[in-house]
From TrEMBL:
The gene is LOC109103744. Belongs to the nucleoredoxin family. InterPro entries: NRX_PDI_b, Thioredoxin-like_fold, Thioredoxin-like_sf, Thioredoxin_domain, TryX_NRX_thioredoxin_dom. PANTHER family: NUCLEOREDOXIN. It holds the Pfam family Thioredoxin_8. This is Nucleoredoxin. It comes from Cyprinus carpio (Common carp).
Length: 353
């Protein structure tokens, strides 16, 4: 793959309104000494597939739009430049369907927690998640919470959409409203399905990982599923290992509850990192996991060629195929904090995965 970087400002000189554009595509011509920088861009902009086009504010460095390819398709003349994010209420504005063909206005979502569900009938993982999501939806509603889901279809025909939507007890953007479906995809930079975006009562994003949260919390005790600083590695959340660098603390724990001391050890550092980047309105550059002695942990150790030591402190960067290992006899909060600080300051030397 290669990355082309360029500036564009509708023919004007670059200023604070200009967009910095990162275009990710495939190519055979890759300079080895540029690989690390390129992978950092992939991680920074959460690129999971190619081609991908990301628009960034040149003045602040903040992402304007993750799904630039849809922007180019929907606005080829640049009339909506600089394509900044709009409030959810504005993008979803319009009639929404129920599976009995009755309609309701999107204003009915005001004051509710909302799940924006990108899915399609032709996608087997989507159908599996929908079955679980139906039960979770009912449990949350029965508990008295104001919660609604809006289905944004990626089906290939209206007939398929109608069949799939008949299984859902929530709302949907009409299949015929392709423009609104596209705008919602652009708003959240959707690169794959199923994706469940969870929003608070003000329309602000709680998490992009609704799918993982639903699967990890079938009883919905953690609703509305605010991000947790530290996760216990499992089959359902292991997909997040591929979304960017992850700190994983491996410990000798086989029984439920034995991971708690490990979580308590790294949680203050994780909370500090989350708070720091939230204040800057940026995504956290590092996710935090603890892993015990189970098949999932063993598979991860084998795949990344890690030693069998426990405790073992690591940072794994799957997209860059790189790992950073801190193999010490005692892991303390100070050790973890220094390890994280050195990683973020790019002082650590990576080993290949």
């Amino acid at each position: 793959f290669s990355v082309s970087l360029y500036f564009r400002a509708r023919g004007r000189r670059l200023n604070s309104a200009a967009c910095f554009v990162a275009y990710f595509s495939a190519s055979r011509g890759l300079f080895k000494d540029g690989k690390v920088s390129i992978m950092k861009l992939w991680n920074k902009y959460k690129v999971t597939s190619i081609p991908s086009l990301v628009f960034v504010d040149a003045a602040t460095g903040k992402v304007v739009c993750r799904n630039g390819l849809l922007v180019v398709r929907d606005d080829p003349k640049g009339l909506e430049f600089p394509w900044g994010p709009k409030p959810f209420a504005e993008v979803v504005d319009g009639p929404l369907l129920r599976n009995n063909r009755q309609t309701t206005d999107s204003s009915a979502l005001e004051g509710s927690y909302v799940g924006v569900y990108f899915s399609a009938h032709w996608c087997p993982p989507c159908r599996s998640l929908t079955r679980v999501l139906v039960e979770s939806y009912r449990k949350v509603k029965e508990s008295g919470h104001k919660f609604e889901i809006v289905f944004v279809s990626a089906d290939r025909s209206e007939e398929s959409f109608t069949q799939y939507f008949s299984e859902m007890p929530w709302l949907a953007v009409p299949y015929t409203d392709e423009a609104r479906r596209s705008r919602l995809n652009r708003l959240y930079g959707i690169q794959g399905i199923p994706t469940l975006i969870l929003l608070d009562t003000e329309g602000h994003m709680i998490t992009r990982q609704g799918r993982v949260e639903i699967l990890n919390d079938p009883d919905c005790r953690l609703f509305p599923w605010h991000p947790r600083p530290v996760l216990e590695l499992s089959e359902s959340n292991a997909v997040q290992l591929h979304e960017g660098p992850c700190l994983v603390l491996f410990v000798d724990a086989e029984e439920e509850g034995e991971l708690e001391p490990a979580k308590e050890l790294i949680q203050p550092i994780a909370e500090k990192i989350m708070a720091k980047y939230k204040a800057k309105e940026e995504e956290t550059p590092l996710l935090f996991f603890v892993a015990g002695e189970d098949d999932m942990s063993d598979s991860l150790r084998d795949y990344t060629n890690l030693p069998e030591a426990a405790p073992l402190l690591t940072i794994l960067d799957m997209s860059a195929r790189a790992k950073y290992v801190k193999d010490v006899e005692e892991i303390t909060p100070a050790v973890v904090e220094q390890f994280v600080s050195d990683f973020l300051a790019e002082k650590l030397k990576p080993e290949p995965i």
